[in-house]
Structures are given as C-alpha cells and as structure tokens.
C-alpha cells in the first residue's frame, strides 16, 4: 500500500459549488461565461499538481436563471481553451450519451486528446430530466434502464471508432505516395439496438488511445455500468460509512466482471469550506447559507420529487409518502441520497436546502486546511476513496485555499505528488493506454466482459 | 464604390489544397493533426489582416487514407485553440445540418463566440455522400432537397436558440438575489418537420448575437438557401465569366427575397501558386501535378460520377453519357462544374485530374504576386466578387507568400485594410449584429422572408 497514491480532481463549477457563491462580494457573477476565469482556475489546479480539472454538463438550461448564473459554455470548448494554456493537467468533460451521436462525440474527444497531447477525459452521463429531452425532439426523458443500455452501446461504438485506426496505420511515405496503410484503417459496420455506425473515424488514434472513461451515476444501473466501463468514478457520499460501503460495493462489482479493481478509481466529492481557523470556516459557511433563496431552492427540490413547492412547507420535515427510487426515472441515486440525508438527520425542508445548497449531497466540510487533509487521509487510508473530487464552495478563492493550504500538507505526508511525473491524464491516474481491439483481436476489457 | 472593401478569407486545408502537397520535401505530412500548425497558420493570416480563417469539414473519412493525410480534427475544437492564440481574426467552421442536432450545435457556436470575443462563423453545409450517412444510422444520403429543407429549419431553430436570451436578460443583482430577468429568457417550443426543440439555450446571447452565417453550396437549392440565410458565400468558380454570372444570379435572388444584396458577400475561391517569377510559379505547379497519384484520383472521380474506375480510361475524355445534375443526390454544383470544365477544355481524364488536384474546381492561378493581385482586383472591380477565399496549394508556404507578397500590393492599391478596425467577425465583413427576434418581435431577416 505504500506506493498507493492519492488522486485529486478539481470540479470547476464556475463560481463555486455553493449555489449562493455568486452573491458574495468577492465573486464575479458572470465568470461562468469568461474563458479567462476557467483558464486561471485550471492553472491554479495545475500549480497544485492536481490530476485533472472537471466540468459537469447537461444540454438544457438547468435551474431557474433568475436564481443563479445558469449559462454554461460547452465543456469540450472550455477544455480546449484550457489545453492551450496549461501543460500537464488532465481535462475531463461531461457529455451525454442520450443526446449525442457516437461519431460526433468520439471525434470531439479524440480531437481534444490531440490538442492537449493526451489529457482528455470523458464523464459519461445519461442525462436526467424531461426538460433536456424536450430540446431533442422527445416529450420526456427515456426510461433510466434504456438510457443506460444506450450508454453501454454508445461506449462500445466509441471504442470501435477510437480504435478504427491502428497505432501504426500512418506511414507518411512521401516517396511511395502512401500516407496510411489502409489495411490498418477499419470500417467496422456496427449494427446495434441504438446505433448503426460504419466507421472508420476521421481522426487517427489519439495519444491516449481513448480519453479516460469517467462515470458519475450511483444507482444500481449506474454501478453496473461503471463496473464494466469506468476507469474513474465520481460519486456523492455524505458520510464516511456510506462512502466506504459504496467503495466496497463498486470494487466488488468490478472484480466480478473480471476487471482489476485497482484500475477503477473511486473519487467521492468533498466540498471544503476552508478557514485559517475552524471558526472562520464556519462563518463563511454560515454566510453562504444566509445567501440562499429558499423559495428558489424549494422549487428545485419539489421538481426532483415530482411535487408542487407548496407540498414542501419550509419548516416541516419531508412528507412521509415520497416515491421509492424505482419510481424515479431521473437521477435515481441522488434522489435516494437526499431523502436519506433528510430522514437520518431529521431535517426540515429549510435545513435540507441549506445542506444541499453547498454540495447538493456531497460531503461538505467546514474547517482548517489541516482538518480537510485529515479527512482526506482518513478516507484514503481506510479504503473509502482512491482520491477526491474537490468541489470548492466558492471560486476562485476556495481552490486557491485548497492548493496553498491543503495540498502542501498532503505532500508533506507523502500522500500526493510534488511534481508531475507523467504527461497524460491516464498517466496521472496510473492507468494504462488501452490496447487497440483491431490490433489485438479483442475488445476493451470492459466490453470484453460485458454479459 | 470607393469605400467598398475587399474581404479575404484563408481556407486552411491542413497541408495545402493541392492533394499532393504533403509529398513536397518542405511539408510535414502529419501537420493535419498538429494544433500548433493551425495556430501558426492563423497567426500568419492575422498578420496579413485577413477577415477570417476557415475550416472545411464532413463527419466521415473522406478519400482513401492511403492517398493523402485524411485525419481531420473537429473544426470548433481547432478554432477554439486558435481563438486563444489570436486577437482579431474571424474563425469560420463547417458543420453539417444533416448530422447534428440544433441544440448541441447552436450551443457550440455560441460558446466559440464567447471564447473568441465575437469571432465565430458557421459554414452551413448539408453534407453529400452515402459514407457519411452510414456513420449516422442511415443507409444512404437523404435526398438533396430534403437536406436543404432540414438545413432551413435547422437555421431557424438555431436563431431561436441564439435569441432565447435577450441581450439585457442578465442583471446579476447580488443584493436582490436576481441573476437574470426570467421574462427575458424564452422557452419557445419550436415544432417543425424535422425538429422539436423547447429552448431556451443554456448559453446567453453571445457577443455577435449569432455567428456569421456562411454557405457553400451552389446548386439551385443551395442558391435559394443562401439567398434566404447566408451572410457570406463561398463558391468555386473556375472562370471569370462563370464567376460573374454566379455573382449576379445570387445577388438577384437575395434582392428578390427582400434582403439587401450588399449584406450577402460572395467569396469565390482562388488557388494561387505564387512564384518570384511566372516561370517559378509554373514550375511549382508542374511539380505538384507530377506528384499526384492518378490511380487514387481516378477512383475518387469515379465515385463522384457513380462509375467504376475502369470506366474512366486515363487518356480519354469523359464518357458521353454521364448523369444529369438532377440525378445526382450528392454535391450537385461541384459535379456540374467538373463535367463542364472537362468538356469545355476537352480534357482527358488524366488532365482533368491534374486540374482538380490543385483546386478541386476552384480557379487555380500560377503566377507572381502582382499577377494574383491583378486577378483579384479585376474580379472585385468588375462585380464578380466581394472578396476571395484564398486556398493556398501548399501550406504554410503558400499563405506566407500571399501575406508577404499579395497583401501589400492590395493594401497599396487601397483595396484592403492595413489594420483591423473592428473587433468581431461581423465587424470585419461590415455586417450588422442581428436584432433579437424576441425583443423586436420579428425573426432574422432571412427567416422573416421565407416563402
Ligand atoms: C460529481 C458528480 C458529477 C456529476 N456530473 C453530472 C453531469 O455533469 N451531468 C449529468 O447529467 N449527471 C451528472 N452526475 C450524475 C447525476 O448526479 C446523476 O447521478 C445521474 O444523472 C444519474 O445517475 P443515477 O441515476 O445512476 O444515479 C454527476 C454525479 C456526480 C457524483
Ligand atoms: C469553398 C467551399 C467550401 C466547401 N466546404 C464544404 C465542407 O466543408 N463540407 C461540405 O460538406 N461541403 C462543403 N462545400 C460544399 C460542397 O462542395 C458542395 O457544394 C455541397 O456539399 C453541396 O452543395 P450543392 O449540392 O448545393 O452544390 C464547400 C463548397 C465550397 C465552394
């Protein structure tokens, strides 16, 4: 275990993960549209030797634009701009398998991998919500199970596209007038339930072979999908016990499908609110809670539960008879997490909203840099995490405090790199470059073991 | 006419427009995958005060990868990287209306417009060819007319998405906890033949309102589409007479639908092969012709005609009984141009291949910088062009020769800017920022006049 290394990902919610962060005096309320803001955040994370930065996404105007900055530039565009302004840090972007075509998306990630010299990662999501569906010709969101089935086929087709050029296909022989060996460029004519795609891709195999495959849904379907395809997993785990149980469950599933559990990294989220003293941290936390608009937050909560806002009186606990996870076709695992959190801690709707306003169900932690480092070390050493998804409540200040305060402590304790030793995102995470299925005659390990 | 200004766009075919350019000793045969190569080309064009750079595209591996570098990074990714490394030059990328969804594409161009500070342009194409269709679940390419009908609805939906946030929707009032005025953020619920899209876009209105709308198909359907929607038109015109006729025809169509013909700029392509002397230029041209592989080129030509390669003997003229344009469902206008060129000049297949190898039907011109400037001035002053699409046969050298040789002559003659005077792509082309249809209560002029 001594050479086991901690991994850190910076989850860049533009103005911070706390929904009221934009209202602080220090915040630029339009930073979400400012590419220099993202570049500067990524440079801070790179200074802290983070493995990667990460952008969430969905193809819909989430939330009420009245309530918080809701405009989102498209992640592969932001990450390309970051790529040109950084050297080493990995670049993970979210894209939906429900509302994209494999040819276009696989190509975009291969392009980003070229532009960044092997630093691209794809957070594979299935996109909950009827509103997104209505931007793509549908009346409502397809069933959860069907979304995950499409996601599986989407990844399978994508790996065929990324492998469609073998690594040594390009010969570039000017004399012989041969640019590529066309026997090593494969038309594969995939025909499946959701897609028929002939190939080859119009981009040769990229530096990493595939972008790093990341997954972030924690329902049963989500965990099964992750066991087969994911190389890194983002997850919301509000307590150590839940985090440990999730970790063991997923590693077990990974082993059961015949993959090496060490090659699937589990990164729970943490929302650190850092102060020079614990008191200072708690004050910032309280200030943020005060800035939440409970009416807006309640409306969003009600939507998640399929209720009207009036059905959730602010100073009462959640109603008794909420639907079970089975009845939810949106984001299943987050729904359950929220209901359990409220029940366990006996929270009123108002208190629940304050808890969610910070981390939306992720572990929030107000304290000193030392205390944050202790929590991280505890989870890491007790087998509840391979690393963390750092979700600063306020940006850029929260990330700066983490990089200047927490990272040096983790480095001193020998838990975290002091310099980059690798050039690619897969390299940072200690993951191999995938073999080419057309060269070796068998598919990506996740696909090869698909039941 | 004195303040009429010439416009220049640099069409960046990675290693040059001549299909054998990669075989020259000076060429890097893998520059098509090297983002620094594109950045350096764009900086050269910016040094020459070009209005814009342009990238062609289609979502398929075109041509035989054996024959020439055929890998293509995705244009909005390349243009984003260029945006971060340049200040003023416009960035025009091609994207297909047949193989994209409006929500995703409109968002990507809006994002590029933000990242570049108002320099994005979209070359709207319908994508010919069965091979592309087979990457998107279809057996063959949809009919030409139907592709253009989808393109029209695609643009209409896109303008609704780009307008879905009014320009003053964002108030960012921290005190009142109001980020945007939600009465100015519009759900529009478009329901049409091809798309149903609810909106709003998840990106506020971008610096230019819309990206510059560019079009590049010259069939009857293509010209009608351009008259309604295009603000700039790329076109292949091999002779002055054809160029003049096209120019008059399109401006006439623009006027007929009630738009101002001065606000639709026509940019024919020119492939300049520039030498210090005419002799040197002709020698480079001949060297390039010698490097073409006629077998590969013939295969591609045969495909365009729906024939087998053996049906096109290299040293005979084209067969008599070729299909008419009506029977072609692919790229109609380019097909007709090629057949007419061969017939008019009585070319054998081998000679035709040499002619097309350079410019694929665009006007090629081997000569001195002075001679190139003369041609440009002639077309511009005789009302056959509002500017030119500069398509260097070899890159980067061909663009450098143009910028260092031709541009100063055009500037001396008072035809071309010596400094940028505007910050946006629309500004460079002298085109207005479109009004917002939800603010003014009527659609984009092209859409408003749709029959
Ligand atoms: C850190 C983290 C980031 C996530 N980012 C996204 C995202 O960007 N887009 C998205 O649609 N879902 C995202 N999700 C997943 C959703 O929260 C939700 O879990 C998912 O849509 C449905 O998965 P499930 O039903 O399997 O739980 C993320 C989850 C986590 C833990
Ligand atoms: C300068 C220029 C650039 C073009 N670029 C593209 C392109 O990138 N992708 C594409 O599918 N068609 C492109 N076209 C259009 C095709 O050549 C062809 O004309 C079009 O696919 C079909 O249009 P038509 O049938 O209306 O002639 C371009 C045309 C010109 C003149």
UniProtKB/TrEMBL annotation, chains A, B:
CDD domains: Nitrilotriacetate_monoxgenase. InterPro entries: Diverse_substr_monoxygenases (IPR051260), Luciferase-like_dom (IPR011251), Luciferase-like_sf (IPR036661), NTA_MOA (IPR016215). The keyword Glycosyltransferase does not apply. Pfam families: Bac_luciferase. Residues 30-384 form the Luciferase-like domain. The keyword Oxidoreductase applies. GO terms for molecular function: monooxygenase activity. NCBIfam families: FMN_nitrolo. Belongs to the NtaA/SnaA/DszA monooxygenase family. This is FMN-dependent oxidoreductase, nitrilotriacetate monooxygenase family.
């Amino acid at each position: 275990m001594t050479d086991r290394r901690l991994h850190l990902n910076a989850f860049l919610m533009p103005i911070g993960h706390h929904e009221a962060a934009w209202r602080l005096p220090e915040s630029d309320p339009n930073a979400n549209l400012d590419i220099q803001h993202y570049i500067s955040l990524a440079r801070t994370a790179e200074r802290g030797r983070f493995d990667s930065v990460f952008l969430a996404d969905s193809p819909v105007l989430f939330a009420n634009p009245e309530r918080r900055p809701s405009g989102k530039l498209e992640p592969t565009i932001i990450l390309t701009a970051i790529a040109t302004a950084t050297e080493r840090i990995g670049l993970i972007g979210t894209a939906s398998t429900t509302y994209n075509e494999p040819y276009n998306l696989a190509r975009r990630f291969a392009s980003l991998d070229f532009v960044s010299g092997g630093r691209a990662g794809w957070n594979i999501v299935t996109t909950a919500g009827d509103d997104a569906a209505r931007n793509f010709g549908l009346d409502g969101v397809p069933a959860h199970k069907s979304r995950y089935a499409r996601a599986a086929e989407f990844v399978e087709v994508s790996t065929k596209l990324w492998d469609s050029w073998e690594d040594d296909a390009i010969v570039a022989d000017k004399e012989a007038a041969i640019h590529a060996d066309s026997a090593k460029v494969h038309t594969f004519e995939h025909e499946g339930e959701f897609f028929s795609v002939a190939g080859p891709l119009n981009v040769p195999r990229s530096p990493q072979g595939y972008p790093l495959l990341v997954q972030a849904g924690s329902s049963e379907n989500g965990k099964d999908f992750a066991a087969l395809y994911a190389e890194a997993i983002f997850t919301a785990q509000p307590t150590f016990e839940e985090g440990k149980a999730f970790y063991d469950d997923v590693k077990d599933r990974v082993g059961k499908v015949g993959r090496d559990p060490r090659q699937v990294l589990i990164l729970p989220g943490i929302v650190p609110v850092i102060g020079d003293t614990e008191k200072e941290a708690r004050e910032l936390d309280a200030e943020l809670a005060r800035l939440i608009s409970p009416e807006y937050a309640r409306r969003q909560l009600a939507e998640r539960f399929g209720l009207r806002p009036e059905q959730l009186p602010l100073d009462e606990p959640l109603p008794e008879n909420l639907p079970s996870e089975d009845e939810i076709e949106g984001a299943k695992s987050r729904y359950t997490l929220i209901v359990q959190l409220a029940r366990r801690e006996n929270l009123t709707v108002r208190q629940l909203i304050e808890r969610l306003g910070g981390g939306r169900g992720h572990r929030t932690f107000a304290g000193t840099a030392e205390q944050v480092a202790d929590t991280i070390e505890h989870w890491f050493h007790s087998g509840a995490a391979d690393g963390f998804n750092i979700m600063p409540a306020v940006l850029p200040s929260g990330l700066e405090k983490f990089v200047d305060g927490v990272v040096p402590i983790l480095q001193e304790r020998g838990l975290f790199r002091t310099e980059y030793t690798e050039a690619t995102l897969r390299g940072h995470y200690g993951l191999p470059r995938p073999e080419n299925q057309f060269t070796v005659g068998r598919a990506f390990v996740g696909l090869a073991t698909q039941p």
